[in-house]
Amino acid sequence: MSVLVPLPVAVSLLGAAVSLALHGRVRLQRALGLAVCIVATGTAVALLTIVQREGVVATQAGGWPAPFGITLVVDGFAAIMVTISTLMLLGCLVYAFGQLDAERERLYFHPVYLVLQAGVCLSFLTGDLFNLFVAFEVMLIASYVLLVLGGSQEQVGSGMTYVVINLLASTLFVSGVGLVYAATGSVNMADLVGRLAELPPNLRGGLGLLFLVVFGVKAALFPLFFWLPDSYPAAPTAVAAVFAGLLTKVGVYAVMRTQTLLFPGDGGPSTLILGVAGATMFVGVLGAIAQSDIKRILSFHIISQIGYMIMGLGLYTLAGLAAGIFYIVHHIVVKTALFLVAGLVERAEGTDALGRLGGFARRAPLVGALFMLPALSLAGLPPLSGFVAKLALVREGLALDRVVIVGVGLLVSLFTLFSMTKVWQRVFWGMGPSPEAVPPGARHGQATAPIAGGSRVRPPATMLGATAALVALSLVIAATAGPLYTITERAAADMLDTTDYLRAVLGG
Amino acid sequence: MSSLILDTCTRAAFHTMWVFSLFMLFSGHNAPGGGFVGGLIAGAALVLRYAGHGTDHVRRVLPVAPELLLGTGIVFAAGTGATAWLAGGQFLQSGIAKLHLAVLGEVKLPSVLVFDVGVYLVVVGLVLALLETLGRQDPQ
User: Fold this and answer.
1) How does pLDDT run across A200-229, given as a tens digit for each residue?
2) Do A119 and A166 meet the contact criterion of CB atoms below 8 Å apart?
3) Low-confidence winner among A255-269, A335-349, A365-379, B102-116 (lowest mean pLDDT)
4) H-helix or E-strand containing B105?
5) Which candidate, A236, A246, A243, A464, places its Cα nearest to that of A370?
6) Quick check: A378 and A335 in contact, CB under 8 A?
7) What is the rounded CA–CA span in Å between residue A276 and residue A288?
8) Is the pLDDT of residue A438 over 80?
9) How confident is the model at residue A447 (pLDDT cuts 50, 70, 90)?
């Protein structure tokens, strides 16, 4: 069944090409984008079931055998990531139909969005280090365009930071690939497993650290996270939600993939990575507490949450990795949903600054509920998906006697709850903003005029539907946590024992 | 403001450059050349026109939307990969056909040529898009 492997990437690229040729016909572009996203999602689900049944599947693009050609490979982890990513991209596309203003949508939103999807899928599917670089670039170049789409001053200003930091990281990345090739003579990841093991430990450790830094920038790990809270909130909400949910997680995926497959260390818990995880959690949540805009608060929480995923990697056991992967799945859904809710609030009120909001739950009770569920899930309250994910991490941390990181994780959960309560209290409770506090103009030129306090808010059906679907998905994750955990456990088993992966790629 | 010298030279060079760009496109398989280089030469011919008379003139010379060229180009390029895959091969696998034509003798047609045509279209489309967006004079 390896024929399906390149499909999510190929269909997205072809779709982007046709969408570009359809420039100016927004309705056709919408239909095409929707069709492509649905096909990609369907393929991803098919790949996930195939991997569950048959194990790791690989294909060699161009028919050139590994390690010379470009290998595309799906194991459990990659299949999970592709599935959840294409689902989010589908949801956010539907949301964008209602949210994007006509000018932004006409300006190449649809082709670039599909290119982004191609880049994200290729990052997960590739089995070749240099090809991973190419996939990252495809994804990043699309994200540069989406971030500054429409070109407001705020967008271009924060886009600059984003572009510069990512170009720097990409330069380091390609240099790292060059060093690996110089040392081993290969860039195929499966081929590198054996070749890297023959290198002197110092050299191997150095290369591993270089890749940790490179992907640490992309994943916004401590201390390389500073670019994130400035750049994400500026983008249009549908785009910001995709970025918040997916892009840093592609970095996390790359960290986990390279650190388990290529630089496995000595097999035990890594104090370095656990330390980074703890610092990322703690600094991220402290940043969030200090903020007073919804999207900025949520952006800092992205950083904090990434700490938990990396904690799973740092524990480096079957249960630890499985919990980390489960955390990624939970986080992608919940965080995307929260950003979409923030967009609903911003659209109705013309701002997302806490000081200018209030009483929103009375005027839009459904939106209030849609915020509350993922917010509590983010903080890790039972019985929501965040609780399951955190419980798994904490249990494994305690089993390994890593008390400090567990303590930090629990403390950060408390702070997260505090921060979410703050948003809830200021935005959804209360009597609504006093008339003089209502801003005179819209912030991004995309919001409607402020509505008189007391009147009901009716967001477009596409926006509300997409948000509700994602929130429902997060509830499904919580409800089916058992079977889902089995899937992530199998993915983690494949990461720890790479024989299947190597056999699928190299044959024999 | 037009210049007689530039106009005359462009008139002589323009079509020659297009023919040369096509030659480069087709010779690219085994010799220096290819879609990218060919596209750049064709683009340079368009830039000559632009230098003489501005964006509107370029649009009259090549009345195609840049988006259409870019999109078609990528469809060609990505389609090459997909065709082999649909025919049961690997994604991006290439093939070659040999034809015997009356005058030219044996002609090799590699599937990479289709890919190269796609690249050619993308490069020409990109130059056109640049001239339209960055090259447009401010109305005032």
Assistant:
1) 989 999 999 999 999 999 999 988 888 888
2) no
3) B102-116
4) strand B105-110
5) A464
6) yes
7) 18
8) no
9) very low
DSSP assignment, residue A430? S
B67 touches A: beta carbon within 8 Å: yes
Q: What single-letter amino acid sits at A396?
A: E
Answer whether residue A381 shows pLDDT above 50: yes
Among A10, A24, A63, the residue with its CB nearest the CB of B78 is A10
Residue A3: phi and psi, rounded to 5, are -65, -25
Chains A, B: CB contacts within 8 A come to 65
**The pLDDT value given to residue A133:** 96
Give the mean pLDDT of A245-261.
93
Tell me the helix, strand and coil percentages in chain B, rounded to 5.
65, 10, 25
Q: B-chain residues within 8 Å CB-CB of A131?
A: none
- The confidence score (pLDDT) of residue A459 equals 83
Q: What are phi and psi of A315, to 5 degrees?
A: -65, -35
Candidates A17, A24, A63; nearest CB to B89:
A63
Examine the pLDDT at A451 and tell me if it is beyond 50: no
- ipTM of this predicted complex? 0.84
Q: How far apart are CA A157 and CA A125, in angstroms?
A: 33
Q: Do A20 and B90 touch (CB under 8 A)?
A: no
Neighbouring CB atoms inside 10 A of A106's CB total: 15
d(CA A245, CA A85): 8
Q: Does B71 touch chain A (CB under 8 A)?
A: yes
Residues of chain A with Cβ-Cβ distance to B134 below 8 Å are none
CA-to-CA distance for A321 and A385, rounded, in angstroms? Answer: 17
Minimum CA–CA partner of B91 in chain A: A61
Contact in structure between A228 and A463 (CB atoms under 8 Å): no
Stretch A139-166: mean pLDDT? 89
C-alpha to C-alpha distance for B105 and B107, rounded to whole angstroms:
6
> Which spans in chain B are helix H?
4-27, 35-53, 55-61, 66-86, 112-133
pLDDT value for A446: 42
B71–A60 CB contact, under 8 Å: no
Measured between its terminal Cα atoms, the distance across chain A in Å is 18
A61 touches chain B (CB under 8 A): yes
Amino acid in the structure at residue A376: L
Contact status of B82 with chain A (Cβ, < 8 Å)? yes
Neighbouring residues of B105: CB distance < 8 A, sequence distance ≥ 6:
none
Rounded CA separation A256/A309 (Å): 9
From chain A, the residues in CB contact with B77 under 8 A are: 17
